[in-house]
């Protein structure tokens, strides 16, 4: 049965700025302090921990956005310990649950879990304990499938509730609820039933990744009421970001980068495919690095062996798919390198976030080329990409069409491309904007590639170029690749172009005068904006991939009719740059009115235009 979320007004208030929650005068404050010290061994609270605990202990629904490693677990484990009754925790992965329970038991906090894969006898045992008048457990962890499928569990929760023993409901990794998120888990959508059945029990939802639209999805799907949102900045000042063009010599570049900047340091290299992981690891070993690979097809023993070796510094570099990283708490990861294009900005942010937990300077380097975009897109189409464990744990019983998920994936990917293609704006700003966070690029202090360029940029209206390209695509009969269209536009006289000579509306060579790279920036922008569409297909029996450019009929008219203008930023010529402002903040008034640059007030990230096209 599907529990469709009730439509209601999304109501939440920001709690972070409210001093009420910082108070030391709550009835539980003393107990809180004592247990934080004695049971958890902490000397103090981290940012927002006390506030979140006070709000949930007050009986409010609370939504917490805190970066990975920020200490979310404490915000429900400590209340669970000092509240009467039992706390229900929904968590996406049995391995994460087991890890948590191990830590709780070490601290002498009685906790247990129920999962679908557990022996029935064992489950019976736990249910019996739950029903006993003197249930020993303070925390009960379950996977979302368990809530969706086990009537027995719901009945037991009912009974606990009627005895006043259901203290709190916790939804960990709450972004899995949202299709907009990069870890969508269909079973999370059914969790709205908990609030429906137990409207008075406070819900605490926690996540490290939430864009504005994800946040709204979560609040709505879970049915949170007058929810208080605590969030802190997702900016990580000690991480340095840069995007580097990926060439054939990429592995040599990586080798050099590590040797020059991070000799003998510990790091992660994220790769797209399992084969890439193995190839990259092998090559780095040849270069003399202590590297190993890690991916989903290795058997669990092998995986945990590699992970342990890495944790103990016996291996420096791990070449992994996104399967690697969940629950990893190594503080001294000095670099995270992306060997290929990540699938989404949220995923990218989270993967980078595994670097520099100790607060020391660490590097995040992304090797990008446009052909990786085609490759990733193709792999997405074929379902060939290894998912993060959160997303892959359950695709069964999905009641959301796969098309929908696919579309979101493609959209997320396009945003990632536009991040990489952007050579002017602060990387922090470009990332944080996705989390609905305001960021003043002055605060980057040149810790990203774009801010540290001494160049400034100029804005250029490229609408006419864009129109010509679209017309060219239409006239070529919709059957040529991006590079072919570019060749024609730039006036190539190559055999290939000549061979297909046809009526190009006289546009052959129309872009001859343009600086190198400019035409391709424009065409890629049109793809990212979905005005042109890359149709990816397997071209032949050998399975090589090619793509054909088409126009998106529904979007192209606005451009051709002059309703939409396209403005892109380009690096200013080197000479002029020294006299201008060194850091790429737009001077006030330098953009035409109605230009949407970075409208921080936009309600949803979908409305934020990262590439400065004027609409
Ligand atoms: P998250 O779930 O936000 O990623 P965790 O709850 O797993 O983070 O906590 C990350 C680490 O921080 C854990 O090792 C935890 O013991 C530690 N930690 C949490 N709160 C505190 C605190 N107040 N003082 C010291 N260490 C803390
Ligand atoms: Mg956590
Ligand atoms: Zn910057």
UniProtKB/TrEMBL annotation:
Give GO MF terms, alphabetically. Answer: 3'-5' DNA helicase activity; ATP binding; DNA binding; hydrolase activity
Chief subcellular location equals nucleus
- Which compartment or compartments is the protein found in? Nucleus
Domain Helicase ATP-binding, residue spans: 53-228
Reaction catalyzed: Couples ATP hydrolysis with the unwinding of duplex DNA by translocating in the 3'-5' direction
**What's an example GO BP annotation here?**
DNA repair
Provide the E.C. number(s) assigned to this enzyme: 5.6.2.4
- Ranges for domain Rhodanese come to 268-303
One GO cellular component term noted in the UniProt record for this chain: nucleus
Q: What is this protein called?
A: DNA 3'-5' helicase
Q: Origin organism of this chain? A: Musa acuminata subsp. malaccensis
Q: What range of the intact protein is shown? A: 421 to 1035 of 1061
């Amino acid at each position: 049965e599907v529990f469709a979320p009730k439509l209601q007004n999304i109501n939440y208030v920001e709690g972070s700025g409210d001093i009420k929650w910082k108070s030391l005068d709550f009835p539980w404050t003393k107990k809180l302090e004592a247990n934080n010290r004695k049971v958890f061994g902490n000397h103090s609270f981290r940012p927002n921990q006390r506030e979140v605990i006070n709000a949930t202990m007050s009986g409010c629904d609370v939504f917490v956005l805190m970066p990975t490693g920020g200490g979310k677990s404490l915000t429900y484990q400590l209340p669970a310990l000092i509240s009467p009754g039992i706390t229900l925790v929904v968590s996406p992965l049995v391995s994460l649950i087991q890890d948590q329970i191990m830590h709780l038991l070490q601290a002498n906090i009685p906790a247990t879990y129920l999962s679908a894969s557990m022996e029935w006898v064992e489950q019976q045992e736990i249910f019996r304990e739950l029903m006993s008048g003197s249930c020993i457990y303070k925390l009960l962890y379950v996977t979302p499938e368990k809530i969706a499928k086990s009537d027995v569990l719901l009945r037991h929760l009912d009974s606990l509730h009627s005895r006043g023993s259901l203290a709190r409901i916790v939804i960990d990794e709450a972004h899995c609820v949202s299709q907009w998120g990069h870890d969508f888990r269909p079973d999370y959508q059914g969790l709205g039933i908990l609030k429906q059945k137990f409207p008075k029990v406070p819900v605490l939802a926690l996540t490290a990744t939430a864009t504005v639209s994800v946040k709204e999805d979560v609040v709505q799907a879970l049915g949170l009421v007058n929810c208080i949102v605590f969030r802190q900045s997702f900016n990580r000042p000690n991480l340095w970001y840069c995007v580097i063009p990926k060439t054939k010599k990429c592995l040599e570049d990586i080798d050099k980068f590590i040797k020059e900047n991070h000799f003998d340091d510990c790091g992660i290299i994220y790769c797209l495919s399992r084969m890439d992981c193995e190839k990259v690891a092998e090559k780095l070993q040849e270069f003399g690095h202590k590297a190993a690979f890690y991916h989903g097809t290795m058997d669990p023993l092998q995986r945990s062996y590699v992970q342990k070796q890495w944790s103990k510094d016996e291996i420096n570099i791990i070449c992994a798919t996104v399967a690697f990283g969940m629950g990893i708490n190594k503080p001294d990861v000095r670099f995270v390198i992306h060997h290929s294009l990540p699938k989404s900005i949220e995923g990218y942010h989270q993967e980078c976030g595994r670097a520099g937990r100790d607060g020391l300077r660490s590097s995040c380097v992304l090797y990008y080329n446009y052909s990786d975009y085609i490759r990733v897109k193709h792999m997405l189409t074929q379902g060939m990409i290894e998912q993060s464990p959160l997303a892959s744990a359950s695709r069964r019983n999905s009641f959301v069409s796969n098309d929908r998920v696919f579309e979101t994936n493609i959209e997320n990917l396009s945003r990632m491309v536009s991040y990489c293609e952007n050579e002017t704006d602060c990387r922090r700003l470009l990332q944080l904007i996705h989390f609905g966070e305001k960021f003043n690029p002055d605060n980057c202090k040149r810790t990203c590639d774009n801010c540290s360029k001494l160049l400034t940029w100029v804005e250029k209206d490229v609408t006419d170029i864009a129109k010509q390209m679209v017309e060219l695509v239409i006239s070529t009969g919709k059957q040529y690749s991006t590079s072919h269209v570019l060749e024609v536009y730039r006036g190539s006289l190559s055999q290939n172009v000549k061979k297909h000579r046809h009526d190009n509306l006289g546009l052959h060579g129309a872009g001859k005068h343009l600086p190198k790279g400019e035409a391709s920036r424009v065409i890629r922008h049109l793809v990212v904006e979905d005005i042109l569409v890359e149709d990816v297909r397997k071209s032949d029996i050998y399975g090589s991939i090619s793509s054909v450019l088409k126009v998106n009929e529904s979007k192209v008219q606005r451009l051709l009719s002059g309703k939409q203008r396209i403005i892109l930023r380009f690096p200013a010529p080197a000479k002029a740059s020294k006299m201008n402002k060194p850091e790429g903040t737009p001077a006030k008034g330098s953009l035409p009115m109605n230009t949407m640059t970075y409208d921080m007030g936009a309600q949803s990230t979908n409305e934020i235009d990262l590439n400065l096209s004027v609409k």
